[in-house]
Amino acid sequence: MIRLSPTLRRCLAEPRVRVGGGLMLALLLVALFAPVLAPHNPGEQDLLHTLAPPAWTADGEWSFALGTDSLGRDILSRLIYGARVAMRVATVAAFGAALVGSVLALIAGYYGGWPDWIIGRAVDVWMSFPPVILSLILMVGFGAGLNNVILAIIIVDWTRFCRVVRSEVLAVVKRDYIPAARLAGFSHLQVVLKEIVPAVTPLLLTLVSIEMGIAVVVEAILSFVGLSVEPSVPAWGVMIADARQYMYEAPWGLIVPVLGIFVSVLAANVLGDGLRRSVDPRLAQRLAVIR
Amino acid sequence: MLLEVADLNVTVRLAAGEVAVLRDVSFTVEAGRILGLVGESGAGKSMIGRVVARLLPAGFRVDARRLNFNGEDLLSVSPERQRALLGNRIAFVPQEALSALNPVLTIGRQFEEHLARLGVPRRERRARAARALGEVRLAHPAELLDRYPFQLSGGMCQRVLIALAFSSDPALIIADEPTTALDVTTQAHIVTLIRGLQRAHNTGLLFITHDLRLAAHLCDEILVLYAGDVVERGPAKMVFGVPRHPYTRALKRATPGLTGPRLRLAALPDVTPGVAALGGFRGCRFAPRCPIADPDCAAAVAQLVEVAAGQWVRCTPRCAAGEAPLVAAEEALALHAGQEHGALLQLEATAKIYGGSRSLWRRGRAVAAVRGASFTVGIGEAVGVVGESGSGKSTLARLVMGLEAPSAGRILLEGEDVTLPLPSWRERIRLMQMIFQDPVSALNPRRRVGNLVTQALEAKGQTLSRAERHERALALLRDTGLPEELMPRFPPQLSGGQRQRVNIARALCAEPRLLVADEIVSGLDVSVQAQILNLLLRLRREHDVALLFISHDLSVVRYLCERVIVMCGGEIVEAGPTEEVFAAPKHPYTRTLLAAVPPDDISRPWPPEDGMAPLGDE
């Protein structure tokens, strides 16, 4: 039998983690295997079948399961390919922000003193900018493009990680096992990597999962206004923008990508909530008492 | 008869079924008398206070043949009547004084709330409160009323709570370990105070404690509890003087004495069973740890039988008749060898001053935690450091270990200067290791036991194979008396004693020459403390390791250490061979410390009646 760590076992026993994690995994697999799963090329135009309704309606055809858009492109295929953009932004931006934020948090929390002061003030200044304005300014500066969207999300959202992780690091550093590790001969780097990082990882995973949902929404907003991917690339924001003009005649073109965003954010939040419940010992205890 | 409890049973419903956490407990408290409830954690002693206050959480079922207060049945009185009784006729003194007071209200406010409940007119409340604080010998009571709890010391908070408890002139006071978190000198003051007030008001007192010796001095009658059973009861002097039950005997012999010959502590094996394990017992719950258990013990629970005037014991007929032999003959430990040691560790006028630096906003007040400490620890020698909380003992340990840099002075290890900051870290930790006070905090909950004890091997970056590391971990577990099965466990799955052993095993991994131990037995039950002390004795003998043992408990220091250092306010006030210092203390502070410890000889009056000056700023 493989021995799982108690934290991991508690996580997997939590239904929210199973549901949220399962949905997230499904989305990632869809994104990964999009070329295999999609019935059509997402850019392929079929001008004979524009604005076709979904297959289960009276005029629907099963070759276009979710119907087509104004240029006759298959909505299902575009939805599947759109997941690639969404998931790429979600994973890279969330992990990037987590990396930047937590490295700074570890430095601030472990060393204290003036590094802590500088990083703390930087976070304060950063958070005084409204995030939407900051990201729009950044996008205007960088220019459009998917990589720039990712960069903008990282630059705006690292503070979210830095603040929370730092306070967790401070709590861990106060425990006697940190000086004990120093006395066992660990270098400072070893102490951070082997003692502190494992202790903050559960919290970090919770934050990453929630950040993934945020990143999906931000990407959709920016691609909606045309600051993200090129118009030819299928992305959920682009799909919404395209379907907007025909939303009364063909609502499915709008509803489907919105559902895509909805499910991604739901998965991220449910997973984050479940992780938080199972890794926060105080919350776990309280719930155990109630049960 | 003030409080009469007959056949009290408390059961709790667990996943495995119903478990009796208190079985057939009967006692009475009379006006002006003190009853001691003695037992280790898990004995169910605090449960009794909660039953009287009806504060048990859901899932607990209470039934009793009688639970009367002044003739009123406490189990059937109306909630209104019960509220009228609690805090008024029946008062409580809790253990954690600081957390029992509301931190955001002044002492005066909290007092006035209580007095308002008692129906004292508004105009009189402040004067009454000041008078009550004066009664518990707090200096400047009027000023104290405007202070907040965190501005007072633990001893002062406990006095405030005692004043609150006595302010309604209750008939019965239930004190749950009121002195456990306090220093010995403060404990002596609090005990004197409680006894003085109790006598003056003719109050009945239910005193709950884990300390048999303290109970023997303070109480008229004692009830010894083990895992929910009353194992022995009787007049305090008799129970402590001639304990009959093997558990009471073990409790008495588990704490080392301050005088007389140094006897090896007869440590009980194992620990008190937890609540979940209680369901598995059909007979005596003490049987698995009992040195004189016979096969019948596991089959059925014995009755309480009267063995002497008023002394009752729940044990086998042979034991009750006093025929059961003491299994282990009392073994006297060799006197500490007085030979000359070569110096291992030397401190020269080492000091640590906190604060005093200027920041942008304020100028910090400098506080000297340790001032001009100079002493030597010889090779293989055990040196004890004693003093009250705030005397700088723990700072001294951190300075020695290099976890703090000293503000002044030098630290020499085998004649070499290792004062921080110097690149001497590796050398330092090869020669000395620290056992931390709180094993819960000192053991990373994410590492397995086998991994924890060999952490030092991981750090060296040696190319050590898994098998070799496993081998070393096994040897360390054997050395510290831990079973092999614990290797893959995580610290939260261990008992307190096991965790402390893991803590010790880890310190031994690098085979240091000096172990620095900071209050490592203070959080443990006495029977587990005895196990750990004997373990340290054995390790010293087998590994020839020196020990710098920091403790507030003088008798423990006497048991382990040949030399002792007494600290007060950051300064070393006295140092010398333990026996000499304890037999003929020169410094008045050492004398105060020694006098505050309850002596083994219960015919000697304790606490000392002198030196009870009003307590101001401690």
Notable features of this structure?
heterodimer, A: 291 residues, mainly alpha, MetI-like fold, disordered C terminus, B: 24 helices, 23 strands, 34% helix
Overview of the molecule:
Chain A has one domain (67-290): Orthogonal Bundle (MetI-like fold), CATH 1.10.3720.10. Helix content of chain A is 73%, strand content 0%. Chain A has twelve helices and no strands. Chain A is elongated and about 75 Å long. With 618 residues, chain B is α/β, with parallel strands linked by helices. Chain B has 24 helices and 23 strands. In chain B, strands 7-8-9-3-10-11-13-12 form an eight-stranded mixed β-sheet, sandwiched between helices. Chain B has a six-stranded mixed β-sheet with strand order 19-20-21-16-22-23, sandwiched between helices. In chain B, strands 1, 2, 4, 5 and 6 form a five-stranded antiparallel β-sheet that branches. The mean pLDDT of chain B is 86.
Taken from the alpha-carbon principal axes, the silhouette of chain B is globular
Integer tally of domains of chain A: 1
Q: How many strands in all of chain A? A: 0
- The DSSP helix count of chain A reads 12
Helix content of chain A: over 70%
Mean pLDDT of chain A: 87
Could you name the ranges of chain B where pLDDT drops below 50 across 5 or more consecutive residues? none
Q: Return Rg of chain A in Å.
A: 22 Å
Largest sheet of chain A: none
Helix content of chain B: 25-40%
Q: Kindly state the number of beta strands of chain B.
A: 23
CATH topology of chain A: MetI-like fold
Poorly predicted regions of chain A: 287-291
CATH homologous superfamily grouping of chain A = MetI-like
Instruction: Specify which chain pair forms the largest interface.
Output: A-B, 21 and 25 residues
* Contiguous helical run count of chain B: 24
Report strand % of chain A: under 5%
Q: Major β-sheet of chain B, in short?
A: 8 strands, mixed
Bulk shape of chain A = elongated
Secondary-structure arrangement, i.e. CATH architecture of chain A: Orthogonal Bundle
